[in-house]
From TrEMBL:
PROSITE patterns: PROKAR_LIPOPROTEIN (PS51257). This is Phosphatase PAP2 family protein. Keywords: Signal. SMART domains: acidPPc (SM00014). SUPFAM superfamilies: Acid phosphatase/Vanadium-dependent haloperoxidase, Pectin lyase-like. Residues 1-24 form the signal peptide. Residues 222-347 form the Phosphatidic acid phosphatase type 2/haloperoxidase domain.
Amino acid sequence: MLSPRHARTLIASLIGAMLLTACGGSDDNNTNNTGASTPPLAVPAAPKDLGFVDSAPVADQAAVLPFVDFAYTNQRGDARYATQDTNAGVRVLGGFLDLWQPRSLIVDAGTTAAANGSFPAVVASDWTGLPGDATDGTIRNAAVLAANIDYVATVTAQRTAAQTLAAYLDDRRGKAYSITDGMGPLTTAWRTAAQQTTTITDIAADATTVLYNDSGNNTGVAGSANTAFGTVVDFVNNIGENGSTEPAKRFFKYARPWRWSASVQVVPALEPAKSPTPATDGGYTSGHTAEAVRDAIAMAYVVPERFQEMVARGLELGENRILAGMHSPLDVVSGRMLGQATAAASIATGNNAARKDAAYAQARSTLMAAANVTTDAAFRDFAHSGSTATDRFADYATNKANYVRRMTFGFAPIADTTKPAVVPKGAEVLLETRLPYLDAAQRRVVLKTTAVASGYPVMDDAEGWGRLNLFAAADGYGAFRGDVVVNMDASRGGFHALDTWRNDIGGDGKLTKQGTGTLRLGGQNTYTGGTQVTAGMLQAVSATAFGKGEVYLGGGTLASSADAQLVIAGAFTQLADTTLQLDIGSGGAGRLAVSGIATVAGGTLAVNFRSGFRPSVGDTIALLNCGSLRGRFTTISVPGYKTTAVYTETGLSIRIDGTA
């Protein structure tokens, strides 16, 4: 006679067998429930390629001279003679002419400065730099320029003590030193390795009457004198080659905000820093911002694990120029543009082109040693190990919101908002280390599909520097408008092995994941061309990661760790020798919801339960819901549990029978 426990076990086994038979749970895909032979499972073809890829061609170089090729024309010594025709920096910032027309330099015989640097003698230059002087320029868009100054008056009147301190420090400290706090947990290691120092640590009691200058070592010790980090310091030092803002200041002749309005309140401790010579103290463009942006890009290039945090820090320093009362929003926007162009030119065609690989390698080895880590994964984790209490750039959502806000400072578009984005020649180098598994053409498309809309004041330069959103570009494509193939080689480490795209990806294109690395998709995606995995892992970390097309698992692993059920808007197909990995949590998190037909031609279903979610014996866990389920998995793996698969015509669940 069976014991009660054995009887229950036997009954459960019989019921499970009956359920498997009734629900098509037999391991023989060619046998129906009556034992009769059924046709082999019809496996759909992979989503069809569109047959073309998106591109981001350089603007017609006969009409638009690329900054990266003509950066050498932007020289401080030629500032008095700079024009749009002769100076690449002035040309990039020329959108300001839609708002403000400066008085041109008067040169003898009425000629303009020569492109070859042989300039006529200046006969008269009576710019006073004072608003209201008709010789300085003419307002062409009164509403925008009034809003530009009113913005400064408003924020300086509301400035907090913390903002006052930050504005003062970012004004008086060396810019490279100041922005290295964007490195978060790596800040101390960077400053120590570079041997950076500062003498400006607070606001002195007499700062309202005494001008304090930073006598520390801004970028650090360069070259062979610093064997551990000298090449990195060289890279940062050189990022500003051909980056002078003086030519633009002299050409545009637009005064600082405190000269325009008495309502602008300069930080009291910065009163001694105000120039007494307005004719040589133009506001457009912000030199501090341009320097901070290009330094931040240099640091982001060699430590791409902190790419978004560093570019965010560069724009933060720009905003601090407004809070200081020293610059207007348009001054700062233009500084961002020139800083990006200068950095790209240095890396693409300047002296840093030959230095970049060695600088990247040296930064990585030195900082990994300082962090006491030996793997790329551990270094990435360490770089983001701070909390908001110790790293003010620790919160991704806050960084993103601030970056977008600081691109336009709330200005509304004043022109056509539907112009296609263009990508400047050479700009793709800015993403070389952040998206190393993409080729140069793909990185250009990333920049194009993440660019902000057209129409904002001063940002519609012909090359496209004003519309670049580097923060968004670090999160991958903004749209698939063709076939996108991502091939990641995990053996190369870093982002080759693991990366996450968090943009909301639209478009009618198709994504194909190749290679051994892992790509995570975390946006609210709407692309319609389908998703195909041939190798490695493609992981969904949002409910709509795979857009609105079908999903085809032909090789490698498809994983879901979404916080809700993962929605596949079309069909789902899984072939043999592949793995579907579901990380299941409470409330249905991580399970698969397929709107169309789910075809399972074998393969493995690997089920993991997230920390904090532990099912009980007897629970039934839904894993897959679909319009129609065809076929079944060869193996279902649920580590730590004994389970029974329960197939139906529209889905799959597992019943928890016990622990393993």
